[in-house]
Design goal:
With about 160 residues, the protein is mainly alpha-helical. It is about 70% helix and about 0% strand. It is built from seven helices and no strands. α2 (about 50-60) packs antiparallel against α5 (about 80-95), α5 packs antiparallel against α6 (about 100-120) and α5 (about 80-95) packs parallel to α7.
């Protein structure tokens, strides 16, 4: 191989290495900048996905028989999982809008209803002392869920 051929080969290899390195660095650094982190003097804007997710999940828990049933005396024994899900949705909504009392107050009411449900021994597998207490706890949570749905609907 001639000196000119060797020089061309080294130049080609170097150019290829630089292209690969540039691609790797560009890919790594490209992931650091998004529409939410532009600028350095102000905090990044947070998308409202948490409240949107809570709104969607709340719509689902409102379709559950623990929310829709007229006969809570028969329904409450299977509402333990619903109570947990509603509590999670309420906490997520309050976390998304911690300064909005139309969301945080009903969220606290959901928590209270859930605590009454637990304290009465209502979750599945536990024999409660008084089924009427469990019905009342589910009813309390349902009222709070309705208030939470109203608060979330009003949020923009």
């Amino acid at each position: 191989m001639t000196a000119t051929g060797r020089a061309a080969r080294v130049a080609g290899t170097t150019a290829l290495a630089l292209l690969v390195l540039g691609g790797v660095l560009g890919g790594a650094l490209g992931g650091c900048s998004t529409e939410y982190t532009q600028g350095t003097s102000s905090p990044p804007a947070r998308p409202n996905t948490s409240l949107d997710a809570a709104r969607t999940k709340l719509g689902l828990v409102q379709q559950d028989p623990c929310y829709t049933s007229r006969d809570l005396l028969r329904q409450w024994p299977v509402c333990g999982r619903w109570e947990e899900e509603v509590r999670n949705v309420a906490n997520a909504a309050a976390g998304a809008r911690p300064d909005d009392r139309e969301i945080t107050d009903p969220s606290a009411a959901v928590e209270t209803g859930h605590e009454h449900f637990l304290r009465a021994g209502c979750p599945a597998g536990v024999a409660p002392a008084d089924p009427a207490t469990c019905v009342a706890a589910v009813g309390e949570t349902r009222v709070a869920v309705t208030r939470l749905a109203t608060g979330i609907a009003a949020a923009r």
